[in-house]
Write a structure and sequence with these properties.
6-stranded mixed β-sheet, alpha/beta, PGM_Phosphatase, 232 residues, Rossmann fold, His_PPase_superfam, globular
């Protein structure tokens, strides 16, 4: 038996899957650090905001400062940073960097945006059930196959997010990548990694500011952590 100490992996055994579970994450792996944006302001939370560009909650930005500090310490210092086109992800990324990580360039990745709810965006939550053609998901406003008028289904979200992750993994092999994104998109990333249906992926809890880590090993996906709450 070969001893593994301090998270170091013995030479010649780096490709053995079991050694990926050492205490310290192995370097040189294509790894995604997915973070859901911070809590949005109260009026936005009362409606289906989807891809609407709603602001963050100013009170939570102050109250959750310890979580930003913890994320700044947790994330790899040499990572590439990506955000969705929506300002709430950019503001969240900037808050993490300002909490001690340091300024880094932010690349916009359009395919990591939230589910587009089309004509249903802006509706109060209570108005949605009467418009659905299928029973809603227990943990999401609509089922994985329901497509809002002028919008997209969660099935479509899973397809675009999966394609984006595969492209980013190919273009940035062996790099750490921080993606500040959305609850629906991160669930879609898990659906891609685990090869599960959208409705199954919607059972995952993805809280604001939570961290989900995925790895890509020559096209094989590995889930390291899901919904890790920084500093808690």
């Amino acid at each position: 038996m070969v001893a593994v100490t301090s998270g170091l992996i013995p030479e010649g055994q780096k490709n053995h899957g079991n050694f990926l579970d050492a205490p310290k994450l192995e370097s040189g792996i294509t790894r995604f650090w997915l973070i859901r944006h911070a809590l949005v302001e109260q009026n936005a939370r009362a409606m289906l905001y989807g891809t609407m560009d709603v602001p963050l909650c100013p009170e939570s930005l102050v109250a959750q400062q310890p979580m930003y500090n913890a994320l700044a310490r947790r994330l790899p210092s040499d990572a590439l940073w990506f955000v969705s086109p929506l300002i709430r992800t950019r503001r969240t990324a900037q808050a993490i960097q300002n909490a001690g990580y340091g300024a880094r360039g932010l690349t916009v990745e359009p395919d990591m945006v939230e589910q587009d709810l089309g004509e249903w965006q802006g509706l109060p939550h209570g108005d949605l059930p009467g418009k659905l053609q299928m029973p809603p998901h227990q943990f999401w406003p609509l089922s994985g196959n329901e497509c809002p008028p002028g919008g997209e289904s969660m099935m479509t979200v899973c397809s675009r997010v999966g394609a984006a992750l595969s492209r980013l993994a190919r273009d940035n092999a062996s790099r750490d990548m921080v993606l500040v994104s959305h609850g629906g998109a991160i669930r879609a990333a898990l659906a891609h990694a685990l090869k599960i249906t959208p409705d199954t992926a919607l059972h995952f809890s993805i809280q604001n500011l939570s961290l989900t880590i995925l790895e890509c090993h020559d096209g094989a996906w590995r889930v390291v952590t899901v919904n890790e709450l920084p500093g808690i």
